[in-house]
Design a protein that fits this description.
By secondary structure, the chain is of the alpha/beta class. Helix content is 46%, strand content 15%. Helix 1 crosses helix 2 and helix 2 packs parallel to helix 3.
């Protein structure tokens, strides 16, 4: 099991921010009491480099890749990078891994095929590295970006747990049942800190606009009972409400609590502004007193 200083953390798409500013933000999030900071890897900052920068700027905060794209580096590079960070910052780095999505992989001139087999083989090759890199240092915990039943089973059988993204508390319950009680379940939850309905729908729309066109997410939402009518670009109001919590601090905390009650060990909150470059820190400061005490 992965240990966190608190049960809530932060997911931040920080690619548009200079790394020096992200380091300052990480230090502030730690002081506010959040337990972790996660970020993705699409076309921006390289995941392991950014992890090292943020770990070096903090002393207690867990830093996790959410996720490191397995098409961005080979298995040896992922294993050696994870071990090096783990040796430098014991217990504070989590290597989240994912197969990404066909359009994103194509932009890297990669080949997306049989994602489950690809991930299984990638993990096997990581395991083959053995102890020759940073001998004596603990391996960085690995979590899989797992949504469907087979990837959740792979997470259960080969890693420390799962890291689902864009899911509901109902999915959290399904994921917990799939990976069992002794694996770590970290869940991302998008949020709009506003009571204004139009603001909430507008921000949820831009957030879901890209994701709603990706088969991996659409398939998972179908398993949760949504239909094609819920999945135009940007999502229906029903889908928006299910995936993006909106309201005051109490509403956001209540949704986080739903995930925790459904079996999540840790929930990372992603604050949505008017566009992807909006600064989430003001809202995270407002939320901290409630979220870090859950």
């Amino acid at each position: 099991m992965v240990e966190f200083p608190a049960r809530t953390g932060v997911w931040w798409s920080s690619d548009s921010y200079p790394i020096a500013g992200v380091r300052e933000a990480a230090a502030e999030l730690e002081e506010l009491g959040y337990g972790s900071l996660w970020f993705g890897e699409a076309y921006g900052k390289e995941a392991l480099t950014q992890s090292g920068a943020l770990l070096g700027a903090t002393g207690r905060l867990v830093v996790g890749t959410g996720i490191a794209n397995i098409h961005a580096r080979d298995a040896l590079a992922a294993e050696s990078g994870g071990r090096t960070l783990s040796a430098l910052h014991t217990g504070r780095f989590v290597l989240g891994l994912g197969v990404s999505h066909a359009p994103l992989v194509a932009r890297r001139a990669g080949h997306y095929d049989k994602p489950l087999d690809t991930m299984r083989d990638y993990l096997r090759r990581m395991d083959e590295v053995g102890e020759r890199i940073e001998p004596g240092a603990a391996r960085a915990p690995r979590l899989l970006a797992a949504l469907g039943p087979r990837m959740l089973e792979l997470a259960r059988d080969t890693t420390q747990g799962a890291l689902p993204y864009l899911v509901t508390p109902e999915h959290t319950s399904v994921a917990r049942a799939a990976i069992g009680p002794d694996r770590t379940l970290v869940v991302e939850q998008a949020a709009v800190l506003s009571d204004d309905r139009e603001t909430a729908l507008r921000r949820a729309h831009w957030h879901l606009e890209i994701y709603s066109g990706l088969p991996n997410y659409r398939n998972n939402w179908e398993r949760l009972g949504f239909t094609d009518d819920d999945m135009p670009r940007g999502g229906s109001e029903r889908l928006k409400d299910a995936l993006v919590v909106a309201g005051d601090e109490g509403a956001v905390a209540a949704r986080v609590r739903e995930h925790l009650d459904a079996g999540a060990d840790h929930v990372c909150v992603q604050l949505l502004g008017e566009d992807p470059t909006a600064d989430p820190l003001p809202d995270l400061r407002r939320l901290a007193p409630l979220l870090v005490s859950l």
